[in-house]
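FAQ
Q: What does a multi-component entry look like?
A: The components come first, one per line:
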Amino acid sequence: MAKKIKTNQDSDKIKDLEQNKVYDDGTLLTTNHGLKINDNQNSLKTGERGGTLIEDFILREKIHHFDHERIPERIVHARGSAAHGIFELYESIGQYTKAKLFNEVGVKVPVFVRFSTVAGSRGSTDLARDVRGFAVKFYTSEGNYDLVGNNMPVFFIQDAIKFPDLIHAVKPEPHNEIPQAASAHDTFWDFISLMPESMHMIMWVMSDRALPRSLRMMEGFGVHTFRLINKQGESHFVKFHWKPLLGIHSVAWDEAQKISGKNADFHRQDLWEAIESGAFPEWELGVQIIPEADEHNYEFDLLDSTKLIPEEIVPVRRIGKMTLNRNPDNFFAETEQVAFNPGHLIPGIDITNDPLLQGRLFSYTDTQLSRLGTHNFQELPINRPIAPVHNNQRDGHMRHTINTGRVNYEPNALGGGCPFQAKASEGGFTSFPERIESNKLRGRSKSFFDHFSQAKLFFNSQSDAEKSHLTNALCFELGKVETVAIRERMIKMLTYIDKGLAAAVAVYLGLKIPKEIIPFNGSLPADGNPNDYNPIITESSLKSSAALSMENTIMDSIITRKVAFLVADGVNEESVKAVKDKLETEGAVVELVAPKLGFIISKNNVEFEIHKSLLTTASVLYDAVYVPAGINSVATLASEPDAIHFLNEAFKHCKAIAVDVDALQVLEQTYFYIKLPKQFTDKDAATKGFIVNNDSNALATEFAKAIAKHRFWDREKLQKVPA
Ligand code: HDD
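Then the predicted structure of the entire assembly, as tokens:
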């Protein structure tokens, strides 16, 4: 039965229906004015073979509505997936902020979170190399608070005035709308190679952080430095962090590209399925708090969004947890129509002079207007605050509220003066009275001129595997750039970060390896050309930061990890069941993959339902693979090229591979086993993610440990696999 539609006047309408003795159980089709439709198959015609009559208002309404179903997609972050949830505070930070959200321990505040990619259109792939948006709307009792962040803690540019240029450069090129959802093209790298301030962010975007395994396994950051204001009116600076309880994990670039073809909705589906299955994604909210007096005590400027505050310098304090526990009912009404705005603040949280943040404050309401068509977007159910709204704003397109009375101005006496301004003590918002004494100018502080020290810090903090992925990413991206001068400019930029990195990329591109760092020309911002200003080449006093490497993340859980069991008729049922039970008990998701769909019959006539066939799935959609025993099953799989490809690819992407000893015949057909048979029998094989055992219980235990490790990146050095 169709769900009842809720409107503002629901209860009145129901009363009217009852009085008129009209009952609606939601099962009959109607027009938008409530008329029951008798024939939804045929338009009104002049005879059975005659022309359609313009008077057919039912046909006209239906087609009209359909014709207008699309609204402009977001200019950035068009492709997104969202979920409802709650935020619960563990620890009050009341000494820093009066925001009830951060004072009321244990209160469950509803949230709606939308994750997104940035460059691609609504229908583009989830696995593009890109920044991920991480936008959280807290529906607090004091009004909506939006923390509109990303999965990377820094940004490409320091001033919002460059944002349209950045986005124009990264989006598909304007003459032919190619490429979709990809930064690997000339215009992006042309812009970047002329924009030294983007180098730190480029390190992040070229790292595996741009290829999350799941939206549930990535960090979130508020990026800017914000302010917390306490009851005494004192200000502290703050950076916000979201720390995923499942750890931070990524996929390989080759895998990301293949996932884009096999399942472009990979992240969307993963989020949806996890929530449907009750494995609710969780993040802890962390804060780095800095006293106002320490504003100038750092090597970087707190107002510069191309810098992070290393966790070694200001530790992240975890103060609460967000749990996403409900999927949206309707993608368009919720995920598409949700409207975030970094200017949606509540008392106790305020903005700073970060010039990137300042420009954002204008952009979001403006873009919602073009996207949603009216200022009344605030009244859409997903955007409506739970805090009551009382003001004199009226009318406009698509107004939902029916304001009553004759008073729509303030001050007024006719309405008893209502609504009154709220005093600060009544929860009225007051901006931090920052002292301003300055000349009006277009310019940038010298404290914004260091563009490389944190890019170096990030690169130096990466593990060997991460460095190699980052290097390969640059080779790929710049390899797609056709203009040699752009590639050369980028190599020059890279020398300021790491000479080895610059050399490796130069060799791949067939360019000269830079012998020495060519200094910038030494001039301060040149009049008229903001790109000419002179970056300072300096070092961070911190050589590396553990929090910047994913190698140091949580690796103790297999919750929601997807494991493929390759099976066919004749499989040994014990070999399936023991391992399946163990992995499922620990929270993994097991799928049986066979040459065809339907059921298979085990050695002792047990029926197993098949989840996916080798045709409808692929290894890139799983975290690990297992081949159980069973003479006939093993013989079938050993002669099935798709099964062998499945294993070769799982090896290539460094995933855990488990095989019953009696199923080694399948492994013997793979490229990697032929090359490396000993690796599978070594004492430490399990530590490399190879588990071969004929004791299913022992195999299951080792396998679970290996899956929790996520990937065995060292394998990339062991053997290259043509898969
Ligand atoms: Fe933005 C959307 C995050 C800089 C202008 N932005 C948007 C979304 C996220 C971010 C997550 C999607 C929200 C959703 O899911 O609906 N943006 C950021 C971060 C930035 C940033 C973390 C830097 C720290 N953005 C930024 C600048 C500007 C914009 C400098 C313009 C001056 N952003 C927009 C926008 C969007 C947007 C055009 C498009 C759709 C929307 O707002 O609702 O206004």
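Q: Is there any commentary attached?
A: Sometimes. For this entry: The two ends are 48 Å apart (CA to CA).
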